[in-house]
């Protein structure tokens, strides 16, 4: 909510998160192996829920997580091949969004807690 509040009406938000279906998100030795990974769909739903309109989606980082020199030298090949053959396995999910000025703004949270009383005995 705070990002939506401080962003100008015509401002743009760029969100880059670890992709849930990538090897990068599952290996703790990588920079993206910590925190919450998202799929492209999850990221879009989160942005919509927080009053943003997704304008563009993309992905990046198709090279597998490795420090092996032959893999590192072939990074540009991995990126080209990955983008065309396995777009859902990219290391990063990217979304560009704008404020959804036409979305209704809730006055308060619609989530309610349900309290269940259980009698002891």
Summarize the structure.
With 121 residues, this protein is an alpha+beta fold.
Descriptive report:
This protein is an alpha+beta fold. It has a single domain (2-99), classed as Rossmann fold. The chain is built from 5 helices and 3 strands. It has helices spanning 2-6, 23-26, 40-49, 69-73, 75-85, and strands spanning 12-18, 52-60, 92-99. Strands 1-3-2 form a 3-stranded antiparallel β-sheet, with helices on one face. The longest helix has 11 residues, at 75-85. The radius of gyration is 19 Å and the shape is flat. The termini are far apart.
Main features:
5 helices, Rossmann fold, three-stranded antiparallel beta sheet, alpha+beta, flat, 121 residues
């Amino acid at each position: 909510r705070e990002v939506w509040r401080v962003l100008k009406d015509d401002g743009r938000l760029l969100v880059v998160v670890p992709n849930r279906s990538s090897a990068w998100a599952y290996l703790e030795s990588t920079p993206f192996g910590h925190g919450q990974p998202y799929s492209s769909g999850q990221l879009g739903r989160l942005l919509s829920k927080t009053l943003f309109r997704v304008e563009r989606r993309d992905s990046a980082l198709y090279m597998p997580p490795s420090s092996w020199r032959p893999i590192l030298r072939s990074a540009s090949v991995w990126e080209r091949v990955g983008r065309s053959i396995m777009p859902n396995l990219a290391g990063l999910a990217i979304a560009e969004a704008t404020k959804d000025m036409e979305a209704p703004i809730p006055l308060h949270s619609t989530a309610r807690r349900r309290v269940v009383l259980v009698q002891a005995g």
